[in-house]
Structure formats: structure tokens, C-alpha cells
Amino acid sequence: MKARGRAWKYGDNIDTDVIIPARYLNTSDPKELAQHVLEDLDPEFRYKMKPGDIIVAGENFGCGSSREHAPLAIKAAGVSAVIAKSFARIFYRNAINIGLPILEAPEAVERIETGDEIEIDFSTGEIRNLTKGEVYHANPFPEFIMEIIKAGGLVEWAKRRLAK
Amino acid sequence: MTLIEEILGGKSGESVVRRVDLVYAHDGTMPLIIEAFNKVFATVRARAYIFFDHVYPAPTVKIANLQKEIRDFAKRHRIPVIEGQGISHQLVVEMGLTENSKIVVGADSHTPTLGALGVFAVGMGATDVAVILGLGKTWFRIPESVGVILEGNPSRYVMATDVILHLLSLLKDYDMNYRAVEFFNVPFSLDERLTLTNFVVEANAKTGIIGEEYTGDGYVKELEIELNSLNPLVAKPHNPANVVPVEEVEGTKIDQVFIGSCTNGRFEQISKAAEILEGEKVAVRTIVGPASMNVYKRMIEEGVARKLIEAGAVILPPGCGPCLGRHMGVVGDGEIVLSTTNRNFRGRMGSPNAQIYLSNPITAAVSALYGEITNPEGAI
């Protein structure tokens, strides 16, 4: 599985309130949520991003509320992956559970700038910066998480457990 | 071995699958839980409760329909629904639901509040909670713990909120992600103990828990907090860890004060604020949100509600209130709020152009009287 798109870079502590403000939580329709993705951080984001683009951020991405609407909004907007130095734990679980690819890659975050063309190979964790001609590596997922990802998300993982 | 390692039965860093003794959700997170649940499961195999606290009673048809959907689901699966009686975390405590429980999961990030009762309680998202409903269990990565030992007793203007704000500034540059905080030697009442474990989430802690005796064995870090030397603190916009002494922001004009929420909406906290407002008039919009109907009832019985009403405050029905900007007390463009809640992220309470400051209920009440952020020391 691969992803390719332009990078949009933000800072540390991007919280779920700016990813999807609570005033838009009166729906669980991903398309509706996507219309407000990152609205309080960068109101232009949803107009300037193209499907496949990649969000790059610093430490503790997705901190705050447990709302699964946050990764849903990002995924439904067409973002192909989020690369961060670290993720807040509930967001980390939520993203994996709903199948939004996330990568912890501090070195990549240091180097990538907004507008860089990025290609990610999820099977190897290799992140290629086509603009700068550089290659970075994401931290590998713990074995347990890999099991869930390989199953295709938590719902599928649970189905298999039930079948046992 | 830390308290949490003992409860989860393993060493920090390990991932384990464990039975969940109690799982709960609210009107805000239930719709996505139902969606995920229905993809895989037919039967609920967990001890579950649902609370309507985020946007209750329903202000729009859309929300009324979502709540109807939740009721239908709950009825089908025989899950109790508690509507409008207060905030989930507070009600779990009041209803004694954690008795005989060691592991609790809530579909809300402030579920760790229950750690004040010595249980391991964590917040999770909708899909995780749906799977817990269906399987009765889930996986946990056993966190490393930071031991926080309190010493002495706080002065009369210092509350549990200040202990956490102080802790947030101590841990600002320390990586708390996936780690927990274990508190020891806590001199507070239950009302205030719940504030500690509720608010510690904002340090990015996975959870907080209060223990009896500190062994010192197995902790990644140890912190001592001298309560006697603490002074009232304030978190500036737009992050709870943006902490300064109240003097530094004294004189900041405010448009709204909110006293309440799962952080500071219990009887002790609201009555402390009411003592300050008694016989006075507030200078700005002042909203009080009891954490539960029991708190509200006691406020009426003990004359606290009268003091607040006569001072000009508006008392909301029990629930999350203005904390998350979805229902009552939403703030407008450019407005400045002083709130006793736990989050001051941009846009949290309404307009993304509003500014939210956080403080303890005493500072909030005194500031309501002056219409600006005021140091309670010297002012009362």
C-alpha cells in the first residue's frame, strides 16, 4: 500500500477541537464532517488540499477529546496519511481503528516542508520526499497494533476473534 | 510495581487483553459507537451504561433524532440510559458503579476521573468502545507511571485545580504520552480528588489514579508537590499547560465566567464559589453548571442555589454545559472567558476567536464580581 501527495505542515499539540470543532458534531456523516476539517486551525485547508495529500505535524497530534469524528473527518477529506512526531493515545487508537494511516516519524517531520511532494510505502515505513530527494523511516508499529492494521481495522479484528 | 501494573497484571510496555468491568458512553459518542457495533455484533456482552449529558435536553430536531436513535439501541440491548441527571463521570461515582470494578473504559477522554476511586479508567474512541460492548474486553498497553506525592496542606484560595495546573507546568517538557500519573498522600475530599484525576488528562496522561501508600517501586519519574507553597494559577489561551500565576493576568477583562463541569461542578467547588458571591452582584455573565442532579439538589437544600441566583448567576441543568461549546453558554467572537473547566483549546467553547482562561472556582467567582481576572488573595 502506497500513498502520494503534497505535505501540509502544522505544529505541536494539534487538538481534536481544531481538527473538528464540537459545533459540527451534530452528525456522524463523514462527508459532512470533512467540510469542516481543521477549520479552526487553517480555515483554507479543505479548499487548498487535494485528495491524497498528507498532513505533517509535530508532537501530540490529536490531543484532547475522544471524538472519533476527528480521524473520520481527516480521512473523509481525502487525506492519505498523517505523519507526526507523536500522536495522542486516543487519536492513535481511533485512527488505526477506522483505517486512517498514521506514521510516527520525527525525522521526517523535521525535514518536510509544506508543499513537498511525499510518497509513503506503508509496508516498509519508508517516506520519500520527492521534492528534496530524501528518504526517512517511520517508527515501526508494535506487533499488537500491526495485527489490527493487517486485519483491516479493529472491527475486522474483532470479527476474527468472534469467529475463533 | 506501580498501582496500574498491579491492576492490569503485567509490566509497563506490555500489551494485554483484559476484561472490562464497566463501560459507558454519552449522547455525544454513542451514534458512532452504534454504527461500529452494528457492523460486527448482535449482542452486548459488557456491563454498560449510557448517559445523556453533552447536549441535553435536545436543542434541535437533528440532535433529538440522534438521541432517539440511542434510546432505541439501548432498549434493544437492555442498556440503562440515564438522561439529564448529570455528567457521566460524576454519575458513575454517585451511583457506585465502580464497586467491584478494577478496569473501566468510557467513550470520553475524561473517564480517568474515576481513578480517584482507585480504579484504572481510560477514555477510548467509538470503535474501541463498540468492540468492548461486543466482546466485553479490549487491549491495553500497560503505561509507565509518574508518581506524584503531595506534601502539606494548601492555603484557603488554593484548590485541586491549582495542583494540576502546577503539575501541567512541571510536566510541560516531559513526554507524558502513553504514561499515567499516580497520586499519593492526597489531603483532599472526594469532590476535589475527582478534580485531580479528571484534569491530569490534560498533561497528556493516559490516566490518573489515587493510591494509599507510595512504594516508589517501578516509577519512571517521581515528583513532590509542596501544597503550602502553591498559589492560585491560571491557564492562558489556547493550551491548559500555558500556566501563569494569577497575578500575571490580573486585570484581564472578561465577558463570561463558567463555574462547573466534570472538573469543578461538584458541591464543594460550587459552594466555595457561592460563598464568595453571597450578598454581592456579578459584574459579568456568570454561568454555573452543577455536575449532577444530586449536586443541584444539595445546592437548593443548603441555600447555595439562592446565593448564586441572588448574585445574578444563571444555573444550568446538570450536564457538560458550555465546556465544549455545543449547547448553552456558547461564547461569541472576541469574547474572553474565565472557566473552571479543563480545556481552553481554540474554539472549544464556541467561537474560534474567543479566548479561554482556566482557573479554580474561587478565582473564577472573585473575578465574576470584578469583571476581570482577579487574584482572590487580597480581594476577599
Give a quick summary of the entry.
With 164 residues, chain A is an alpha/beta fold. Helix content of chain A is 34%, strand content 20%. Chain A has one domain: Aconitase, domain 4, CATH 3.20.19.10.
Q: Kindly provide the radius of gyration of chain B, computed on alpha-carbon positions and rounded to a whole number of angstroms.
A: 20 Å
- Name given to the CATH homologous superfamily of the largest domain in chain B: Aconitase, domain 3
Distance between the termini of chain B: 45 Å
Characterize the largest beta sheet of chain A: strand count, sense, and whether it forms a barrel.
Answer: 7 strands, mixed
Number of strands of chain A: 7
Instruction: Name the largest protein-protein interface in this structure.
Output: A-B, 44 and 47 residues
Low-confidence stretches of chain A: none
Average pLDDT of chain B: 97
Query: Quick one: overall form of chain A?
Result: globular
- Can you tell me the CATH architecture of the largest domain in chain B? 2-Layer Sandwich
So how many helices of chain A? Answer: 8
Note the beta-strand portion of chain B.
Answer: 15-25%
Q: Can you tell me the CATH topology of chain A? A: Aconitase, domain 4
Structural class of chain B: alpha/beta
Quote the distance from N terminus to C terminus of chain A. Answer: 28 Å
Number of domains of chain A: 1
InterPro entries (chain A): Aconitase/3IPM_dehydase_swvl, AconitaseA/IPMdHydase_ssu_swvl, IPMI_Swivel, LeuD, LeuD/DmdB_bac, LeuD_type2/HacB/DmdB
Pfam families (chain A): Aconitase_C (PF00694)
GO molecular function (chain A): 3-isopropylmalate dehydratase activity
Protein name (chain A): 3-isopropylmalate dehydratase small subunit 1
